[in-house]
Structures are given as structure tokens and as C-alpha cells.
Specification:
The longest helix has 18 residues. This protein is an alpha/beta fold. A hairpin with a 4-residue loop joins strand 5 and strand 6. Helix content is about 20%, strand content about 30%. It binds zinc ion (ZN).
Length: about 210
Amino acid sequence: MYIIIHKTNNGLNEEQKRVFDEKLLLKGDIRLNDNFALADPSHKLILRPDAVREIFDFVEWDVGQRLDVRDEQGGILIGKRFLDEGRGIHYVVVTKSISADGAHGSMGSLEITNQCWGLMHDKKDDYNREIDQKAIIVGWFHTHPNQLGCFMSSVDRYTQDLFFDGDNTYSIVINPQRHLLKAYRAKTCLDAQAFLLLDCPHGTEN
Ligand SMILES: [Zn+2]
């Protein structure tokens, strides 16, 4: 994904310290990312059902094995960071995803212009007013469509390094046709643990 944007305000993204009840949050159906087992368990990305649904609808995940040729798609992940000091685990909880609707996609790239980036920021601000909280940009997602596998290309790594370089900043790469999904973390694109909550029967808090 090529992005022409300003810095994503990582300075605002400090973690909130609190004991984190992971068991409560992780009840229900969960999809783990395909590179989950390779990842450091002291950093966890949790996507709540609304955010998962927004991403899956946008990339047409449920349409699955359709053979049409698709362009790259992408967007940003909005949520909060928590640090459970007792257990030494860093959590990022994503409550919303915002798709880059006006981006120029092709089979091998996605260019998010300044205008498109501005629209995503406006949507983030609207969302914060709606929930009366201060959720922040905690990462991004994009697709590798058609026969492409999921990995961080050199351009993706450049984007991550430049705009999403925080220690607890994530990138998700999705192939919606082959149902592949991988998650990466930090400047150097480490394998990451991601929990995608497909439902949340207990109505748990953030
Ligand atoms: Zn890519």
C-alpha cells in the first residue's frame, strides 16, 4: 500500500495501564491469524466484532473463492492500547476499522491520497464523538488479492516504517479470496498475535 500522508501521531498513542481481563474478552468465536504461532505472546492485537465485520464486509471476505480479478484495498485500525503491568502484556484493542474508500487500487498497489487520508481522519473524529472517547490509529490493513500470499512487501515495510512505527502498531494483510490473514507489529514487521472476535456473546467492555 502506498500512502501519501502525514505522520499518524504516534506520540498520542501511549498505553493506558490497567489489569486486562483477557479471558472475559476472548469468549466466543475467534479467528487467529495465520502467523499467530510465530509471534511474541507479550503483545496481543484484539479486534472486536464490529471492526472485524467492517473489514470483512469491505474486502468481501465472505464471498470467498470468487475467481474475479480484484484490486488492492485497505484502511486504518482504530482503538486503544493497554498495558497489563502485572503480566507484562501489551494489548491493542481495535473497535473500529475505517476503509480507504477513495483510494486508487490496482492489482499490486494501493495509493491513499492526502484527501482520502483526511476523510479517514474525519471519520475517526466522528467516531470519537459518537463513543465520547479518544480512540486512536493503532495500525492499518490491506489486501493482497487474487493469487498473492500474505506478507509484508518492501513497499509495505517502507509504509510501516514511515507511518506505523510504534512498538504496538499493527499491520494486517488479507487475501479475501484465499482466506489468508497475517498480522505484523512494529517498525520491523514482526509476526504478531491477532485475535479476531467473530462474535461477542457477553457484551464485554473494551
Ligand atoms: Zn502489501
